[in-house]
Amino acid sequence: MTDSWATYGVDLHVELRGPGLRTGLINALREAVRTGRLPAGSRLPSSRSLAADLGVARNTVADAYAELVAEGWLTARQGSGTRVARRAVAAPRRAAPAAVTRHSARREPAYSLMPGSPDLASFPRAEWLKAARRALTAAPHEAFGYGDPRGRVELRTAVAEYLARARGVRATPDRVVICSGFVHGLMLVAKVLRRRRVREVAVESYGLHVHRDLLTEAGLRTPALGFDGLGPRTGELAELPGAGAVLLTPAHQFPTGVALHPDRRAAAVDWARGTGGLILEDDYDGEFRYDRQPVGALQGLDPERVVYLGTASKSLAPGLRLAWMVLPETLVEEVAAAKGMVDWASGALDQLTLAEFITSGAYDRHVRSMRLRYRRRRDQLVAALTERTPDVRVTGIAAGLHAVLELPTGTERSVVQAAAWHGLALAGVGGFRHPSAERDRDALVVGYATPPDSGWAGALDALCRALP
């Protein structure tokens, strides 16, 4: 019977200390509570379960529990078991108060209009749960193994079909590699580029510094392309003989919101064909467009010269850690090898759930629903600015999850500081400028997707009060 007892109850790691079993158990439990390893309210195993686990008599455990209850370390109630008493846990020691610094004295912002995040509260929990149940029920046994480094074939197939239909990507499942976010995909490609002895990857004058830093840490230089109202000047690639690749956001440039002009898209592809270079296409929020026809993926112009990178971070949630690459045929094996012998990055069940979510049509329904929600938010933002700050020009709003507010020269920093005083977190465009790029504008990059409905009006009011 003893063996069967150990299959019930909760687990507890105990190292017996003391001259006898009973005393050793009391000392071990008392020390675990005193040090906080067993927090207040923690449920302990039943005396029968713990005795079986430790290989001691049940009376030994029962006597130890009884003494600790009498001392006030534990509580025992009928129906709720034995738990750590709340008054038994000593308060953690507090460090001596340090001098209040200017940084630590800052108030936490009441509102945030920082760009880069979707509306997390709108994650489709019910539909995702349904998809997870269906996926788990249908999952083959081998899905619970280590897995193909390219990712589950079900998700690669669903992604290839969706991208071909919705983004104009020329994809087949064997060219898709699943990764855990855009940064992970970029890291893998950077590793392959270094192995191919590429030394430079050209980037846009405005973009996320984390992407530039990642390329730099991989040993790649990141010269910047000039930028204007038509997007990055891709014709300048011919002036960068050391560049073996270029990182672009052609459908909706981040953070300026510009769609790359068709002539410049063609120039980038011509450069890649002529030099054997690669275009790394970041299609981070290509599904969200409002006042224009959809801009197809650049990859459709030449699948053998473009690495397409997409992600569920904006369409669903960044916490899913699911993204995908559509690779030229010559790169698939190298990228898979860089990822490893097995799929360490993305859980099989999450991949299967997303595959089911896409193939069932739930993904399309969610994207359409969020497109309407984000468009309403954008329209409310523009209306508030038109009414209260009519001199502020709003750009980059035909697609995406953020708007760009042009400011008078030299005012960007002061506006961001003023917003902070009004309890609003804001980003200036200067934080996205390449270190070598000229300071050609002052502007705010306003993310309108994140604030909850209850805080949206307050965030708009704080923004308008901070603007010049």
Q: Total helix count?
A: 14
Range of strand content: 5-15%
N-C termini distance: 78 Å
Low-confidence stretches: 1-7, 88-105
Radius of gyration: 28 Å
Number of strands: 17
Major sheet size, sense and barrel closure = 7 strands, mixed
Shape assignment:
globular
Question: What integer is the average pLDDT?
Answer: 89
Q: What structural class should be given to the helix and strand makeup?
A: alpha/beta
Helical amount: 25-40%
Sequence of strands across the biggest β-sheet: 4-12-11-10-9-5-6
Task: Characterise this structure.
With 468 residues, this protein is α/β, with parallel strands linked by helices. The protein has 14 helices and 17 strands. The strands form 5 sheets. It has a 7-stranded mixed β-sheet, sandwiched between helices. Helix 9 links the parallel strand 9 and strand 10. The radius of gyration is 28 Å and the shape is globular. The N terminus is likely disordered.
List the helices and strands and how they pair.
Elements: H1 2-5, H2 21-34, H3 47-54, H4 58-71, E1 74-77, E2 81-84, E3 111-112, H5 125-138, H6 153-166, E4 176-179, H7 182-195, E5 200-204, H8 209-217, E6 224-225, E7 227-228, E8 231-232, E9 243-248, H9 262-275, E10 278-282, E11 306-311, E12 323-326, H10 332-339, H11 348-359, H12 362-388, E13 393-395, E14 402-407, H13 412-421, E15 424-425, E16 427-428, E17 442-447, H14 453-466
Parallel strand pairs: 3-15, 5-6, 5-9, 9-10, 10-11
Antiparallel strand pairs: 1-2, 4-12, 7-8, 11-12, 13-14, 14-17, 16-17
Helix pairs in contact: 2-4, 3-4, 5-11, 6-11, 7-8, 7-10, 13-14
